[in-house]
Amino acid sequence: MQAVGGGDSVGRSRAEVLGLRPELAAAHDRLLEAIWSGVVSPVTLELCRLRMATLLASEVALAERSEAARAAGLAEERIGRLSQWPTDPSFSAEERACIGFTELFVIDHAQLSDDDVRELADVLTPEGVVTFTTALIAWDNQHRLDNALRVAAARG
Amino acid sequence: MSTTPRLPSAVEGAPANIVTVRRHAPAVMAAFDAMYAVLLGGGVAGMDVKEAMRLRNALASGCGL
């Protein structure tokens, strides 16, 4: 395992690993704050974050929950049905468009089409698309960092 | 690989490109750019290593930019 900051990252939480470069950790936190306080529904964001975590087998990210999404009404029961989103009627048109986009982004982003982006813009607006795709980039990096460095779930 | 933007420009009268499309969400992109600047500007890895990683990542992901 690659050493991080002179120590082993295995078993450290993400905050502890990123904290080895405090200015980077702070900038990373500010980016996430800007995303979660933006124009896209926190419920939609959280469903997509968790779907990506499932596809990338990021156990740490799967164990985390967004307080903003919880406050906006996202319950564990619906999170448990996330893999059934294509046929489960509880998922809205916005959520379907975003989860589908997330899946293709992870699995084969080169296959994302003009129609996929148009559908996303129809439900999110262009501002929402820029915010949402930036979120996907941030989570993709975060999940892969967690897996590569074997980051542990946050304690407490 | 196409680099034709799939979103319109957020700047009236300006063509759509990586700068003008990102302006649809200025707060988010400002935070992203600030983090990117920290990544590029400090740490123990040299700019040559970072640029090599960036280009390798661009090749692997098919990014024409």
Summarize the structure.
The complex is a heterodimer of chains A (156) and B (65). Chain A is mostly helical and 156 residues long.
Polypeptide structure, described:
The complex is a heterodimer of chains A (156) and B (65). Chain A is mostly helical and 156 residues long. Chain A has a single domain, classed as AhpD-like (Up-down Bundle). Helix content of chain A is 63%, strand content 3%. Chain A has 8 helices and 2 strands. Chain A has a two-stranded antiparallel sheet with strand order 1-2. In chain A, a hairpin with a 2-residue loop joins strand 1 and strand 2. The longest helix of chain A is centred in the last third of the chain and has 35 residues. Chain A starts with a strand and ends in an 8-residue tail after the last helix. Chain B is an all-alpha fold and 65 residues long. The termini of chain B are close together. Chain B is flat. Chain B contains 3 helices and no strands.
Percent helix of chain B, as a range, is 55-70%
| Beta-strand share of residues of chain B | under 5%
Radius of gyration of chain B: 14 Å
The count of helical stretches of chain B stands at 3
Estimate the mean pLDDT confidence of chain A. 91
Count of individual beta strands of chain B: 0
Shape call of chain A: globular
Could you name the CATH topology of chain A?
Answer: AhpD-like
Query: From the 3D coordinates, which CATH architecture of chain A would you assign?
Result: Up-down Bundle
Helix count of chain A? Answer: 8
The total domain count of chain A is: 1
Outline the low-pLDDT stretches of chain B: none
Biggest interface and its residues per chain?
Answer: A-B, 26 and 23 residues
N-to-C order of helices and strands of chain B: HHH
Ends distance of chain A: 26 Å
